[in-house]
Design goal:
The structure is a single chain. The chain is of the alpha/beta class. 33% of the residues lie in helices and 20% in strands. The strands form five sheets. The protein has an eight-stranded mixed beta sheet with strand order 15-22-21-16-17-20-18-19, with helices on both faces. Strands 3-2-1-4-5 form a five-stranded mixed beta sheet. A five-stranded mixed beta sheet has the order 8-7-6-13-14, with helices on both faces. Helix 4 packs parallel to helix 7. The radius of gyration is 23 Å and the shape is globular. 52% of the residues are buried.
Length: 542
């Protein structure tokens, strides 16, 4: 059974093609249109290039589809090209629940969905938090939190609370990760003040009225206007909203555990991208196991819609995954695709082809010498994190490397941290964390005796957004880190997404070449080719 899932809402559009319950291909529209979060794509929305990509990669056409599924808040223009088909629409939070539960290794699990807002309910309100229990192929709704929406305000939404504060301290729409990164620079100054702007209880109820939101806006603006140190005030605000988000989520999770008694928890919704909160949920709630699909935001709902079509509409039984679900769900580009991109820029490049072992040896040496390298391999990752196939890599030992990359390469705020990618068998030597973290969705403490050794990936509070790298999930990235470890005795690389500030992660070899020529990277690796920019003309392959 071939099922096309169409995801997003009014942003983050995406498509996923599955066959007999196996994800074949997933891609986000932003990667193809080169417009971050698919915002302001206007008439291009009707193209649905992501669906076209999924079908093309698998040599299919529309007639090969047995089912098309989307959520009920996806902008209808995005799937209008399929209007001659019957397009199934499902509840938005249900699509999130399917996204996290179906790819998980659990046969049964509690499921918590938290985002800004989801579907409209029969009472005219919009869902903001949803509680489910999954078993086998079934996903059972337990209860919801919802609120009225008025203009750009929505009641009773902890996701909107965080989003609102992100905006008030000066960051843009869908830039909540900046607030999370800034929070450790703050203090407890505003924690008590913020308790006037919402209410929650041990049953996981979160209440915030429209009036409270307005008062919160007035309070923050007043504090900012009268601040003698605006950056510190922003950090203190970020600290407070991060603290309260964590407390609300922990209370909700404890309540969900009391209802389900499951040892397993699946999270989804945009709030599930908050790796700091995720680590605390695992540490401070009774749940022993926590799964989050790497594309936890609205884009990832294409996956849930596709798998829902197979398990619920198709009625097939579900056998849980025995290992981690691969996040590498894009297209595999051929050597001819790579060479075609090279030829357009041959006069600006030196290009050296290596054997695999020679490549790992050469690149690990360059990294150990302080070079910053774009790394393009295999299929692109699902979600907002580069996981070793569309990455910028550097030496984590250099205490200046974070500032160098933020300023010279990524052109972003200096407080923003970078992730440590570690060989999974050495993770416990460096991190106070006993679980795997293949999708970079947990931010644990780095052990005190290791922080100076990997200072470039140690945040101000001593944490790191951890990626554990296994040979099973990504053998090429694993081998590169292993070679680096053999040279440096550090089994870790600094890993950040291959994109400039405000740009989507690169998708194709052509995207990688274009970005490499714009950005101040030292080298680029595509497949087994090592590239360097040159000033002279006429160089070709070596």
């Amino acid at each position: 059974m071939n099922v096309l899932g169409i995801g997003g809402s009014i942003h983050d559009f995406s498509s996923c093609l599955s066959q007999h319950g196996k994800i074949l291909t997933y891609i986000e529209e932003e990667r193809l249109l080169r417009m971050k979060h698919s915002l302001n794509i206007h008439k291009k929305i009707v193209l649905n290039k992501a669906a076209e990509y999924c079908l093309s990669v698998n040599n299919m056409n529309e007639e090969d589809l047995d089912c098309i599924v989307t959520s009920d808040i996806v902008e209808p223009a995005y799937y209008s090209r399929f209007n001659h088909h019957h397009v199934h629409q499902i509840n938005h939070h249900l699509s999130h629940a399917a996204t996290t539960f179906y790819p998980s290794p659990f046969n049964e699990s509690a499921i918590l969905i938290v985002d800004g807002r989801g579907s409209f309910l029969s009472n005219g309100e919009r869902e903001t938090i949803s509680y489910y229990y999954g078993k086998g192929r079934d996903i059972i709704e337990l209860k919801k939190v919802s609120g009225l929406e008025e203009n750009d305000l929505i009641e009773n939404s902890v996701g909107k609370f965080y989003e609102e504060m992100t905006d008030l301290i000066g960051f843009g729409f869908l830039q909540d990760g900046k607030t999370m990164g800034l929070a450790p620079f703050g203090t407890e100054k505003y924690i008590k003040d913020f308790t006037e702007f919402f209410w929650f209880d041990h049953k996981g109820q979160f209440k915030q009225s429209l009036l409270q939101i307005q008062k919160m806006r007035e309070f923050v603006r007043h504090q900012m206007k009268n601040s003698q140190d605006k950056q510190q005030t922003k950090a203190d605000m970020a600290y407070a909203v991060q603290h309260h988000l964590e407390e609300v989520l922990i209370a909700a999770c404890i309540n969900l555990y009391s209802i389900t008694k499951s040892e397993n928890l699946c999270l989804s919704g945009g709030v599930a991208l908050n790796g700091v909160a995720n680590e605390k949920i695992l540490r401070r709630t009774p749940f022993k196991n926590l799964y989050i699909f790497p594309a936890a935001g609205d884009a990832g709902t294409a996956v849930g819609c596709s798998l829902y079509g197979y398990y619920q509409i198709g009625g097939y039984e579900r056998i849980p995954n025995t290992g981690d679900c691969s996040p590498y769900l894009g297209k595999e580009y051929s050597d001819s695709d790579i060479k075609s991109a090279f030829h357009k820029h041959a006069s600006n490049l030196t290009i050296v082809q290596h054997t695999e072992d020679d490549l790992y040896d050469e690149v690990s040496t360059l990294l150990s010498e302080g070079k910053i390298i774009g790394w393009f391999q295999g299929k692109s990752e699902a979600g907002p994190r580069a996981l070793g196939n569309r990455s910028i890599l550097a030496d984590p030992r250099n205490p200046n490397m974070k500032d160098i990359i933020n300023k010279r390469i990524k052109h972003r705020e200096p407080f923003r941290p970078f992730a440590p990618a570690v060989l999974e068998e050495y993770a416990r030597d460096f991190f106070d964390f006993s679980k795997s973290s293949p999708y970079m969705l947990f931010v644990p403490k780095i052990k005190v005796n290791a922080q100076d050794k990997i200072s470039a990936v140690t945040h101000v509070d001593g944490t790191g957004r951890l990626q554990t790298v296994s040979i099973a999930l990504n053998p090429q990235f694993y081998e590169l880190i292993r070679y680096f470890y053999n040279k440096t005795n550090i089994p870790i690389l600094l890993n950040t997404s291959f994109n400039d500030n405000g740009q989507p992660i690169v998708e194709s070899p052509q995207d990688a070449l274009d970005s490499f020529l714009r950005m101040d990277l030292d080298y680029l690796v595509i497949g087994n080719y090592l590239l360097q920019k040159i000033e002279s003309v006429g160089n070709g392959y070596e």
